[in-house]
Amino acid sequence: MEIIKTKEEMGAVWRELKSRGRTLGLVPTMGYLHNGHVSLIKRSQKECSATAVSIFVNPTQFGPGEDYDSYPRDRQRDIDITSKEGVDFLFIPETKEMYDENHLSYVCVEKMDRVMCGNFRENHFRGVCTVVLKLFNIIKPDYAFFGEKDFQQLMIIKKMVKDLDVSIKIIGCETIREPDGLAMSSRNKYLSQKERINAIILRNTILFAEEEIKKRCRNLEEIKKECLKILNADESIKNVDYFDIRDPETLDELKSVQSSPQNILLAGAVYIGATRLIDNKVFLL
To answer: Do 33 and 7 form a contact (C-beta atoms < 8 A)?
Structure first.
């Protein structure tokens, strides 16, 4: 595995790959890798001639009071994991390599970045889109692989790529879960033993909502209110940011269900203690 730290080094890599007609897959991460990331790596290796993983804790997607400084980091552990998985290139730039002192340009996907997590994390998706587009321009992948756990992020990036005519195929990959159903996340490390046991409440509430919607005997607003009531009543939850029922393509809120088949997104974000967890499910009704 080749470890790359500068844009210039990365440029030499992709130019050499293109000259040989090889396809390059990118798995963008913020590090502290887990089995969810490994599943993305394996998917890239299946689809592409070569695989690059980027590790960069992006400061522009963290707001005031968020966990940028304390976000879990373990570079050697990440190097060991990517090496073991047979990653071809590991891109680990420093902040000054990605953003110079006079950086003034940002990318926004309007409307979609103001709902759900965007309603609670101002400029979060502006930071995500900016760093992802920078990584695309630096690494020049043919494919990029993102987990469906961050579903809003996935759909915003797909929209950005479509609207800005970026010639990269975005692949969404299934959420990898712990045996009890909790979505794998680097932030799960923050949970205490008791919090970890209780953290499954969000997943269970999403599954409850799915079953209630499939019964077609209650309107969506009633189901949403009941789910919020369940979450707010749970003593392990410090705060509920949102629990939404939305169109998975546009992220528009759904007020009713159609008589014809439609896809439905259930998504929520809660704080278990000081740890913010998100989860979602898309299903066909």
So the answer is: no
Taken in order of first residue, the domains within the chain and their CATH numbers are 2-173 (3.40.50.620), 186-284 (3.30.1300.10)
Place of tokens 């394996």: 42
Q: Is 37 a catalytic residue?
A: yes
- The Cα–Cα gap between 144 and 130 comes to 15
Q: From CA 25, how far away is CA 160, in angstroms rounded?
A: 18
Residue 164: both structure tokens together = 């800005």
Mapping DSSP to helix (H, G, I), strand (E, B) and coil, where does residue 284 land? strand
Q: Which of 34, 37, 103, 124 is catalytic?
A: 37
Digitized pLDDT (tens) for each residue of the chain, 285 residues in all: 999 999 999 999 999 999 999 999 999 999 999 999 999 999 999 999 999 999 999 999 999 999 999 999 999 999 999 999 999 999 999 999 999 999 999 999 999 999 999 999 999 999 999 999 999 999 999 999 999 999 999 999 999 999 999 999 999 999 999 999 999 999 999 999 999 999 999 999 999 999 999 998 889 999 999 999 999 999 999 999 999 999 999 999 999 988 778 999 999 999 999 999 999 999 999
E strand intervals along the chain: 2-4, 24-29, 50-55, 89-91, 143-147, 169-173, 237-246, 263-272, 275-284
* Residue corresponding to tokens 């902040």: 95
Q: At what angle do helices 35-47 and 75-84 cross, to 10 degrees?
A: 40
Closest CA to 268 of 211, 156, 183: 183
Q: Are 209 and 254 a contacting pair, CB within 8 Å?
A: no
